[in-house]
Amino acid sequence: MDFPDDRLYCEYHLWVKLEKDQAVIGITDHAREELGEVDYVELPALDDSVTRNRAFGIVETSKAVTDLIAPISGIVVETNTSLGESPEILTDDPYGDGWLLTIEPSDPEEFDELINSESYKKLLTDQFHE
Fold first, then answer.
1. How far is 43 from 103, CA to CA, in rounded Å?
2. Which ranges of the chain have pLDDT less than 50?
3. Would you say domain 8-120 falls under CATH 3.40.50.300?
4. Which of 10, 12, 26, 44 has its CA at a distance of 20 to 30 angstroms from the CA of residue 116?
5. Burial class of 25 by CB neighbour count within 10 A (0 to 12, 13 to 18, 19+)
6. 45-60 pLDDT, tens per residue?
7. Are 82 and 28 a contacting pair, CB within 8 Å?
8. How distant, in Å, are the alpha carbons of 7, 34, 42, 81 from that of 65?
9. Beta strands at 8-9 and 55-61: parallel, antiparallel or unpaired
10. How high is the pLDDT of residue 128?
């Protein structure tokens, strides 16, 4: 599995990539494997608020409907509208064209709760050995 070093990660299997004063959010390679083929993605509207540790959208597969849990809080400034017509992009390219949304973070201290790629790999290893 791939976990790029230019992003931060959370226990909800989402990544955050800082770009100037905004944060792009997407799913990890691990989440992609767990989800399987995606049928539908629901994301918040522009200017909606997202709150850390709360659901901001859903991913629907043939297996289940899964909540997307926000890794940080902020205001939505962009959503990946391509996912509406081609939800498979989410799992085909989770670190590129399959990004979910971009937010303007509201609490910079929340970034301290995110982990780097090495810590995320350890988190996954620990979860599978419990």
1. 12
2. 130
3. no
4. 44
5. buried
6. 999 999 999 999 999 9
7. no
8. 26, 12, 10, 19
9. unpaired
10. 63
